[in-house]
Every structure is written in C-alpha cells, then in structure tokens.
Amino acid sequence: MVAEGAHLPRQHCFVSAQEEQKEKEAILGLASDDRELSGSGLNPFDGFDASFVVPPEHRPSRHLATGSSESFARDIPVIDLASLGYERKSIVQQVGRACEEWGFFQVVNHGVPQTIVQGLKDEAKKFFDSPRGMKLQVKRTADNPLGFNDGELTKNVRDWKEVYDMAPGGFFELPADFEADDTGSVIHRNQWPSFLPSLRACEDYMEAAEKLAFTLLELMVESMGLPPCRTHKHFESSRTSLFRMNHYPVCPAPELALGVSRHKDTVALTILLQGDVEGLEVKCQDGEWITVKPNPEAFVINVGDVMQVYSNDKYQSIEHRVVVNKNVERYSFPYFFSPGHWVDLGPIPELTSDQCLPKYKSFNWGKYLKRRFDSNYKDLGVPNLQISDYRVNV
Ligand SMILES: O=C(O)CCC(=O)C(=O)O
Ligand SMILES: [Fe+2]
Fold first, then answer.
1. Which atom of ligand 1 is found nearest the CA of 2?
2. Residue 300 CA: which ligand 1 atom is closest?
3. When comparing pLDDT for 9 and 52, which is higher?
4. To 10 degrees, what angle do helices 202-223 and 114-129 make?
5. Ligand 2 centre from 165 Cα, in Å?
6. Which strand (E) or helix (H) includes residue 220?
7. In a mutational test of the pocket of ligand 1, which residue from 269, 332, 335 has the highest number of ligand atoms less than 8 Å from its CB?
8. Sheet of 104-108, strand order
9. CA–CA gap between residue 106 and residue 108 (Å, rounded)
10. For ligand 1, atom 1: residue with the closest CA
11. 239 Cα: distance to centroid of ligand 1 (angstroms)
12. Does the interface ipTM go beyond 0.90?
C-alpha cells in the first residue's frame, strides 16, 4: 500500500488487452478468473490464476530455478552499529555513502533484542497458518487500511502474498479529505484478531523498531551535514508509520509471478526484517537486479521517497521487488517510517542554495498519502500521485 507505483496503469508490451489475455490463458491453460476474492472463503494461493501473471519484460527469469548464489556476487553494504557510541563519525560516513551509492544497506548489532524478533516470527506464522475465514475477520477495508489483505496489486498485477498491516502506537491518522483545506483528520485503529491474542507481541517489536528508526533517521540526516535531530519534530507524534507482516506462500509458477512487483517505498525509510529465505531484489544503477543476501541477524534499510525529497535528490529511493519460490514459503516484516500527516514536505532549506535550487515544491504529506490510499479502492480517474508530480524544473 505504501509502494510507489502500485495501482498505476501497467506498462507492457502486449499489443492489445485481448492479446495479453490470450497470452495469459496460453501460459496458464485456463481461462482468466475474475472472482472477487476479498469476501470469499477461497484461498487465492491454492491455485494460480491469470491475475498474478507479470508482463514478460518484468518477469524474474534469472537464477530463480536454481536459487543460485551467483546473484550475491554484489551485495549491499553492511553497517555494524555496535560502535555507535564511540565511532559515530565513521558510521555516519558509511550511512551517507550507502545512501548515496545504493539507497539500501543492512545493519547489524542494531539493538533490537533477538527474543522480540523471534516472538514476532512465531506469531506471524501462527496468524498466517490460520484458516482464511478467520483471517478475514480482521480484513482491511475501504474504511480501515489496517488489517489483513490477500488481494493487493502492485503495478496493477496481483502480488503473490498476504499481508497484515498495523499502526505502531495503535492508530493511524490521515486528513479526512484530499481536496479541502481543513476538514480535520480521521483515525484508524489496529484490528487485533480475537482468535490469536498473542499476536499483540508485535507491539514489542514495533516499539523497538521505532527506536531504531529514529536512530537511523538521525544518522541519515547527520550524513547530509545537518544536526541529527533536524527533522525530529516531523516524526515525534507521527501516526502515519506502518508495520506490515508479509507472507509469501510457495508458488507453483515463480517464473510468472512476483511477491511484490517493482516499486519504491513512499516513506522516509524502511526497516525490513527478511528472515533467512531469499527473495528481495534491488535494482542497481546499471539496471541489474541483485538479490539481497538474507542475514537473519540484520535489518535491511532503504531510503524512501520522503528522504529523497528532504535530501533534494542526494539520496534516491530505489526500485526493488520480491521474487517467490516453489519450495519454501517466505516471511518478511517491513516497518515503514513516515512523518506526521500535518508535515509540509520539501527539500530541507539548508540543503538548497542559489547554486542548488530546490528540486521539489512543498506539498502536504498527509494529503499526499490520503490520495494514495483512496486510489487503492477506487479509480479516481487520474494517475496515482507520485513525488515526481511535485518536481520543479531547475
Ligand atoms: O519482502 C520483502 O523483502 C520486501 C517487501 C517490500 O518491499 C515491501 O513490502 O514494500
Ligand atoms: Fe518495498
């Protein structure tokens, strides 16, 4: 839902919709299936239907069949936070370099206790192993973006995944309206499943992840030559951060589908726990997709769109995607860290000058997010908003 580019008109190489349909049917040996899944008891991952088929040019053809490690030849930087108390300068430099050169890095010795991480993984497995009918008791709706969802699209293609979204701190707050100037805000509360009370162990994880998110924010901001707390007040009582549990079931046709199609994260930064099953791929500057080697001790951190705007494009939000697997299910846990809905977002003024003009005009973060949420549920008749809509020619 926070993926940039989700629900945009798909760019593809089929000549017509009919041709596209024919190709899908030929691949699958079945007619397309338009059933409305969100209300039914059917598990979408018991079979494979045309809605999961990714256009040929975006299919994950490489190294999938073997799961080979050839794709690990290049890997994103790993930064050890153990010495943060006494070697801060060196860590700030490493973070700055990683953000500029990769937009992605991993952190180890991050301070989130292993017991909390394990508790989260255990509860996530229990939740996703529950019958679909039970999971639907907490399903996400047009009125509440928090909860369970197994029908998400990215780039108009159905993701091979099911998710459960939660707001750290218990609730999520957005402006009531995209257009009007001041219509107040709307609060959405977490939905906790009555059949699994122990899932609230996630609250411990979210608390620890938020602490780490502030540490990383400070490091990124400091690496741009600013006081570490420069943007703190944008985040201190923010209620737009989101925690997601992703479950990618085993997939009978991993060469045709993706767990999440290529996208950028809309937020300031993402802290991802990816467990020990590979799947996350990052697009390098030369266009090659590389696999982020799983390290169960590490978190994968990436720069999001908000940081790209703050930094006036010094740090870029990078495209990534998730490949799925025939043999083993995968879980991942992104914590999406975002400013408060009231924040007017733009390049941080100290980073701009007559020689380095702002590349974005200011826009309200909450309204931007509200618009993107709305477009998840109805065709607004206009393309989904992107940060590039606020770009100015300089
Ligand atoms: O599952 C992963 O490794 C990444 C998921 C992701 O990119 C997302 O949920 O935005
Ligand atoms: Fe992502």
1. 10
2. 3
3. 52
4. 120
5. 14
6. helix 202-223
7. 332
8. 78-80, 104-108, 299-303, 269-273, 330-337, 242-248, 162-166, 147-149
9. 7
10. 332
11. 21
12. yes
104-108/78-80 β-pairing? parallel
Q: How far is the CA of 244 from the centre of ligand 1 (A)?
A: 9
DSSP letter for 106, please.
E
Question: Is the model's pLDDT at 87 over the cut of 90?
Answer: yes
The ligand 1 site (C-beta within 6 Å) comprises: 3, 244, 246, 260, 265, 272, 274, 279-280, 320, 322, 332, 334
- Across 305-315, average pLDDT: 98
Query: Taking a C-beta distance cutoff of 8 angstroms, is the pair 4, 265 a contact?
Result: yes
Out of 104, 155, 245, 246, mutate this one to test ligand 1's pocket (max ligand atoms within 8 Å of CB): namely 246
Q: What are phi and psi of 331, to 5 degrees?
A: -120, 150
Q: How far is the CA of 112 from the centre of ligand 2 (A)?
A: 21
Average pLDDT score over the chain: 87
pLDDT, tens digit, for every residue of 120-174?
999 999 999 999 999 999 999 888 999 999 999 888 899 999 999 999 999 999 9
Of the listed ligands, the closest to the CA of 334 is 1
- DSSP string spanning 28-84? HTS-------TTSS--TTSS--GGGPPPGGG---TTTTTT-GGGGSS---EEEGGGT
Ligand 1, atom 3, lies closest to the CA of 280
Whether the pLDDT of residue 6 is over 70: the answer is: no
Phi, psi of 360 (to 5 degrees): -130, 145
| Banded model confidence at residue 14, pLDDT cuts 50, 70, 90 | very low
